[in-house]
Fold this sequence. Notes:
The chain is α/β, with parallel strands linked by helices.
Amino acid sequence: MISRAVVLAPILLAQAVRVRRTTPRLPGAAGPVTGLVAGDGRPMRLAVLGESTVDGVGAATHAEALTGRLADELARDGRAVAWQALGKTGANARVVREELLPLLEPADLVVIALGVNDTIELHSATRYRRDLLDLIVSLRRRVGHVPVVLAGVPPMGRFPSLPRPLRDVLGARSAVLDAAAARLASLSGVVHVPMPAAMLDPATFAEDRFHPGPEGYRRWAEQLADVSRQLLSDTISWQKR
């Protein structure tokens, strides 16, 4: 049976070209890619790896992008948090491992935010899962058996910049890749945090209607922080046994 994507290929290609031509090209966040949220005790070291959302596209500075917002949320209990943002616009999981991982500093928690570019590039679920696994294995070789949070692939069917049927096709593909990523939660110290479609309110997008704006990053950071706190707590409990 011929897939719907194959039948619609000419329309999808035309829409993809139009979206690329008309979508505003926003820069990554300005300012340093490391920072410290003041608090008590030795800082908890947070590293965030990923694509344009970790590069901070849609926010003016990293302080109001994903990494800075997540550090603020994790510091709400009064503990200091030192953070590092390692993001590259246009990067897929393999590029992050090859180009950004060598820059990773020692960390107590690593958050990985990927999937949109792998979706756009129509990577298979098998390849995406393998590339994520390679990334996790490689980062743990570099910084030890740290807890890892896999941020869910954003549901691209809710991206307002994408016309139909392109939005529907990429939405279905992003869901397939997210399910593949979720299977890696069977690894010790790894959790997967799906992004609810309801979180993608059109009002939370940046000017390009493709990336989060500051409010979108804030909501995403709140969700990831809740799971990250629990993962860190579980890790500490396990280490004390």
